[in-house]
Design a protein that fits this description.
Length: 153
């Protein structure tokens, strides 16, 4: 007997439920508190519960409505570039510094989409770098070298 449901919605719902349940269960190790005096476990449990509810709703929406078309192929280029960028950022932030790492990470991540060209990726990375400088360095006062020791000549 074939299941008359959207495999995409069921898979998405299952992923939401799995992540929400995992984080909520892990957060149960911490004190919960009350809505007016929140403990460290309050937000992860509440947000995990919301994610579980959202996953159930997404999965329920797909029941009775099978997928009309085949799933698109996986965007391997995007997956590889985004994951590689995260690793690059973590490995080089102290050596290269904030500005070069954010510029390079923003550019490579923008190039992970086939909808971006070199000019748009450059504009995105410069805009992201300026925004990150304003938020993290100026606004939050994060202490990080703007240009790291690897680039000092």
């Amino acid at each position: 007997m074939a299941l008359n449901a959207s495999k995409n919605d069921l898979a998405s719902g299952a992923i939401f439920v799995a992540f929400g349940a995992y984080f909520a269960l892990e957060a149960m190790r911490y004190e919960f508190g009350t809505p007016f005096r929140m403990g460290p476990g309050f937000m992860p449990i509440v947000l995990g519960g919301i994610l579980v509810a959202l996953g159930i709703a997404v999965a329920a929406k797909g029941i009775g409505k099978p997928d009309e078309e085949a799933a698109p192929p996986w965007p391997w280029r995007g997956i590889a570039l985004v994951l590689g960028t995260v690793l690059f950022f973590a490995a080089t932030i102290r050596g290269l510094g904030f500005i070069p790492v954010v510029l390079i990470s923003g550019f490579v991540t923008a190039m992970s989409s086939v909808k971006n060209n070199l000019v748009s990726a450059l504009i995105i990375s410069v805009g992201l770098c300026v925004l990150c400088l304003l938020i993290f360095v100026v606004g939050l006062g994060m202490i990080v070298p703007l240009v790291g020791p690897w680039l000092r000549f």
